[in-house]
Structures are given as C-alpha cells and as structure tokens.
C-alpha cells in the first residue's frame, strides 16, 4: 500500500509519518495534527479511499473470534460505516450480522 500522507508544511519533506493523531516530519521535527493538514482517510487493501455507504468485498477468509464461524473470501458487504479505532469499518455481514472489520482485509467494489 502506498503512503499518502501530506508533505511537511514547514520544510515540504515527503518523509512524514503518523503516530496516533499526529503527523511528524523526521527532517525538521515539526509535528502537526491530522486535522491541521487533512482529515485521515480510511483506505482498503489496495489503497482506494473508503467512504460511508460503500460496498466492499472481503479479500481473505476471516475467522470470527470466539466462534467456529468464518467470513469467506469474496463476501460482499454493502453500506459500510467508517468509525475510529483498530476495526475501522462497522457493517452487517450477510449470514453473520453486525461486526467490525479492519479496512486492510477488504477491497472496494467499483461502480
């Protein structure tokens, strides 16, 4: 996945990195909040920007913790909702129900 963080507003370095809600420039040590530069974007496994209401497909089998159920690769999930946290997608998976998914395990359906 390509890094799409904005360049440093002080020195224009492209080597910025993110730690929680802060963006940091290793060259000039400038720190700024994500909201100061741009709002954090949630991206799928191939780098597409996700939005509320998008449809995604699961790219690998996902075992549900505490059960013997599995969400199979290729499962289409409609009407996602983006949230803060480790599991950054809230959705209803057909046959499973409401669940939180990580964006790294889904791919946006085009169209």
TrEMBL record:
Domain of life: Bacteria
Matches recorded under InterPro entries: YjdM, YjdM_C, YjdM_N
Residue span, Protein YjdM N-terminal domain: 4-32
Provenance organism: Leisingera methylohalidivorans DSM 14336
UniProt family annotation: Belongs to the YjdM family.
Pfam families membership: YjdM, Zn_Ribbon_YjdM
The protein's name in its UniProt record: Alkylphosphonate utilization protein
Protein YjdM C-terminal domain boundaries: 42-109
């Amino acid at each position: 996945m390509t890094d799409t963080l904005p360049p440093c507003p002080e020195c224009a370095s492209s080597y910025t990195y993110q730690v929680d809600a802060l963006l940091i420039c290793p060259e000039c040590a400038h720190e700024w909040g994500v909201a100061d530069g741009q709002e954090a974007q949630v991206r799928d496994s191939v780098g597409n920007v996700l939005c509320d209401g998008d449809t995604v497909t699961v790219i690998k089998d996902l075992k549900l913790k505490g059960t013997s159920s599995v969400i199979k690769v290729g499962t289409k999930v409609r009407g996602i909702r983006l949230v803060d946290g480790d599991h950054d997608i809230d959705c209803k998976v057909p046959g499973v129900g409401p669940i939180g998914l990580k964006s790294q395990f889904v791919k946006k359906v085009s169209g």
